[in-house]
Target: TauD/TfdA family dioxygenase
Amino acid sequence: MTVDTAPTPASTAVALDVEPLTIRIGAEIRGVRLDGDLDAATVAAIRAALLRHRVVFFRGQGHLTPDIQIAFARLFGELTLAHPTQSSLEGYPLVHELDASKGGRAGAWHTDVTFTDRPPAISILRAVEIPPVGGDTIWSNTVSSYWDLPDQLRDAADRLRVFHTNQHDYGLRAQDLEGLPEVFKERFFEFRSKEFEVEHPVVRVHPETGEPSLLLGGFVKQLTGVNQAQSFDLLRAFAEVVAKPENTVRWKWRTGDVAIWDNRATQHYAINDYADSPRIVHRVTVAGTIPVGKDGRESVARAGDASEYSPIGTVPAA
Model:
């Protein structure tokens, strides 16, 4: 399937070979060799496909190195550091290495780095080493998830705000680490070595498309102004719609694949089903703007300063 993109001020429109994977989310883009010197028209076309499909995939990008991945990512905007608390790939402060043998497993729905007041806009993930079986990732469209909510629950979501924190990493606790390798424990405590907490709107307005999107996931602590039991029930209802198969796409990785997702309109889940097989991926992220709710209120940092991790991203001109 060929998708034509609208012209941009800096370039003439180009057509990409884009094959949608589901109706609501996900597409594979073929015939593009990712690099830091891609022309502006191709970059604009990839960005347009990303905004439309939420996550896009590229096979056969085995030529990429950390340097090339960084150079390519820069074409989409300013970059964040690798992570607010965890160490980066050695020699590459902008590259976050997720190595399963060192505790780099998620196994929970989340949006990247929502425990800061400026979560990344775009994440670019490169498959360095992939298990022979397992290790797939699922993405969910949090815009369609929002519209799938019953009317009354959607109206409530529009008004609610919620605390996110890195002290609540997918709900894990220190006692859950008993019996795990020491490197897993070190990663756990490194993640929490500097406290971050932020109050976000439950529904953010996408800064490029204007669409409402659920801003939730594994770093959520509790809804504000709601008791713990009510918060738990509401967050579970929101999570159920995010995980609906109709809102998701599942990608079976091969070494050399690249996934690019709109972190403002998705959650994802890295499936932890590959036992002791090696799984290494490298992530580079594009800086995002401070989320804004439907009432015009911005997210507010309650603990931690994310300015060293991420500059405040700019929204591309229309």
About this structure: Confidence is low (pLDDT under 50) at residues 1-11.
